[in-house]
Design goal:
Elements (H helix, E strand, L loop, with lengths): L8 E5 L4 H12 L3 E6 L2 H16 L6 E5 L5 H10 L5 E4 L14 H29 L2 E6 L12 H18 L2 H4 L3 E6 L7 H14 L3 H10 L9 H11 L11 E2 L11
Parallel strand pairs: 1-2, 1-4, 2-3, 4-5, 5-6, 6-7
Helix pairs in contact: 1-2, 1-9, 4-5, 7-8
Length: 265
């Protein structure tokens, strides 16, 4: 299927590895020009080089990158100084630490809100009007399955990401946006085979004293699909949400989790 987005420009955050990289790879495969952002310059440069080598150069796709912390005002300013107009924006930032809510002070909450709620809102604010003027825009926020099924030790993430979800629900349905070719959706990943998931398993193994493989197998057995997702699968979903064919899909929370969420709604 031709997604009809070749030649568009995308800003992809957290693009050096994991789910962000999966989105960047899928969009480049559709002929979308990329500005990739992440904090680590070495990993980001390598990721960009791999996308170019995989065929982006031959297809005439521009793959640029900026090593910045997108969760800071200075980082966002540096990225938008490089390029201000985008047809596609994929927001993505690492989740805040786990723990007990009694241990989180005001600054911990502010950091979580800055990274996982206010940063996506600031990126939307910076790019939305240009999309409206051109009559096309796709904004995809990578959040978490915890928005649908909160996890007790992820209170910082539950709160910040749920705030973003509520904001998007109202904004995406504004007729001045929805009727002018711009969609805003959220992608809520379940358990995908990434470095972050591996680190979670390592921590659980150390805490429980169980072998790492036993922890991994137990987690996998809880998923009806009996496996973890791949970044490539996630990227393909993101690319579809950015497509011309997804123009009638907005304000939604898409939950790729192998069937793990037990609810009907």
């Amino acid at each position: 299927m031709d997604l009809g987005i070749a030649g568009k420009w995308a800003l992809v955050c957290g693009a050096s590895k994991g789910l962000g990289l999966g989105c960047a790879q899928a969009l480049a495969g559709e002929g979308v020009n990329l500005l990739m952002v992440a904090r680590g310059e070495s990993a980001l440069a390598q990721a960009a080089a791999e996308i170019r080598a995989a065929g982006a150069d031959r297809a005439g796709v521009s793959v640029e990158f900026v090593a910045q912390d997108i969760t800071t005002p200075e980082g966002r300013a540096a990225v938008l100084a490089r390029r201000a107009e985008f047809d596609i924006v994929v927001t993505n930032a690492g989740g805040p630490p786990t723990g007990d809510f009694r241990d989180w002070d005001r600054q911990a909450w502010i950091r979580a809100l800055d990274a996982n709620m206010l940063t996506p809102i600031e990126l939307i604010r910076a790019t939305l009007d240009g999309m409206l003027a051109r009559g096309f825009g796709r904004i995809v926020n990578i959040t978490s399955s915890a928005v649908k099924a909160p996890i007790d030790i992820l209170g910082l993430s539950n709160g910040a990401r749920s705030g973003l979800t509520g904001f998007v629900a109202g904004l995406a349905r504004n007729p001045q946006i929805a009727a002018r070719g711009v969609t805003i959706n959220n992608l809520l990943p379940g358990k995908f085979d990434t470095d972050r998931l591996a680190a979670t398993f390592q921590g659980a193994a150390q805490k429980s004293g169980q072998p790492l493989e036993a922890v991994r197998a137990a987690q996998q057995a809880q998923i009806p699909a009996r496996r973890f997702g791949t970044p490539a699968e996630f990227g393909a979903i993101c690319a579809f949400l950015c497509s011309q064919q997804a123009a009638y899909l907005t304000g939604q929370n898409i939950l790729p989790d192998g069937g793990a969420y037990p609810g009907s709604f």
